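Weekly puzzle thread! Below is a chain. First person to post its structure in token form gets bragging rights.
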Amino acid sequence: MQGTGPAVCLGDDIDTDVIIAGRYLRTKDRSVWAEHAFEDLDPTLAPRIRGAVIVAGRNMGCGSSREQAVVALREAGVVAVVAESFARIFFRNAVNVGLPVIEAAVSCTDGARIAFDLDNGWVEVDGVRYPVCPLSEKMVAILRAGGLAPYWRSSR
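Winning reply:
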């Protein structure tokens, strides 16, 4: 599985409340979640993440275990999330909804060109290649299918 996009760089400890604030969870309208992604961190961020790769530091997705956080990112058009480390529930929720998560410590600036190849285990930032923590074959298959539900439907 491969992908590319411009980087949107964030810091450490980006929690799920920052990704999608609790006040938007009264609706099940995913487009509302996408529209308001990262609103409390930076109100201009949601439109900039369409087609982008989010690059974060340590502990990406910490906080509550709300699946809506990864759904908001996927619905907003995020290509993948690269981080030095992830909260485990966020990581698994991302795989389950088909949002590629890549564990790697990379240096970047906003707008840097990111490319990744999960099958061969690398992420590249402006031509500099970094190794990634490999995903299991099953996780890559789930991501390739578009998430856990499509994976199970296709394997029946």
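Puzzle host: Confirmed. Bonus trivia for everyone else. The longest strand covers residues 2-9.
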